[in-house]
Amino acid sequence: MNVDIVDRSTLIRGLFKELVLEKRKTAVVTIDMHRGHLDMDVATMPTKPDDAKRVIGNAQAALEFCRQRKIPVIHVVLVNRKIPGLGSEAMVHPFWKAMHAAQGELDRLTPGRKSTVKEHNLEGSKGTEIIPELYRQGDYVIDNKKRLDCFYGTDLKTLLGVLGIENVVLMGINTNTCVLNTAFTAFNFDYRVVVLSDCVASMYGDDLHVLGLQNVARCLGWVLTNEQFFAKLEEEAQHALHA
C-alpha cells in the first residue's frame, strides 16, 4: 500500500510562530552520537556515510552556537556490558536475539551495510566514544543508556531538573528509534520538545527517518532546521533585550 504524507504545512507554520525558546531554560541532548554509528572505520551499527558526514557537520555548528550562549550540552551514549556466553547485555531482549539469528549477508538491520547487535557498543570499545568534533570540556555525559529511550534507566531527568530545563532540543541517531522514543518521554514529562532535522539520521532507512520527523512535527513538538533553531534563539534574545 502506497501512502502519501498528509500535508500539515499550515499547522506546522502556525506551531512555529507559537514556539518560544528561552536559552536559560533550554538544553541540547545529543543521542548516541558515538563512533558506533558515525565512524565508518569502527561502527558496528553504521549510518550511511553521507548521513554521518551531514549529521556531524551540522551538529558541530549547532553545538558551538549553543555553547557560545551558555546553553548546556548533554551527551547520552549507549554502553553495553559484555556478558559471558551472551555477548552484549542487550541480547536478553527477544527482538534483538531474533534479529541476530535472522539476519544474513543480504538481510541486515542496516540495509546494505554490515551490522551486529551482539557486539554493538561494548564497554571499553571504540564505538562508545563520542565523535571528537562534538565534545567539549564542560559538556555533560550520561553513558549508561541501555535501551531506546534516553530517560529510561538514566539520570537525564534529574540532570535536566538541576539545570532548570523546560526545553529539550534533540539530535542524533536514530530518528525513528532513540530520538523518537526520547521525544515521547520528554513530551510525557511536559518538556517543550525540539528535534533538529539537520542533525538526525536513521541507519534503518530514509523512510523511517521521515516517519520519525513527521511523528514529532505533527504529534509531539517542533522539527526545526539549524537555521530555524538559531533564529528562534536570537528572536528570544532580542525580545529579552527590549523587554
Structural features, described:
It is built from eight helices and eight strands. It is α/β, with parallel strands linked by helices and 243 residues long. The strands form two sheets. Strands 5-2-1-6-7-8 form a six-stranded parallel β-sheet. A two-stranded antiparallel ribbon has the order 3-4. Helix 6 links the parallel strand 6 and strand 7. Helix 6 packs parallel to helix 7. The longest helix has 20 residues. The radius of gyration is 18 Å and the shape is globular. The mean pLDDT is 93.
Topology:
Layout: H1 9-18, E1 26-31, H2 35-38, H3 49-68, E2 73-78, E3 82-83, E4 87-88, H4 94-102, E5 140-145, H5 156-163, E6 167-173, H6 175-188, E7 192-201, H7 206-220, E8 222-224, H8 226-242
Parallel strand pairs: 1-2, 1-6, 2-5, 6-7, 7-8
Antiparallel strand pairs: 3-4
CATH topology: Rossmann fold
Portion of residues within helices: 25-40%
Strand order of the largest sheet: 5-2-1-6-7-8
Distance between the termini: 53 Å
What's the level 1 CATH class?
Answer: Alpha Beta
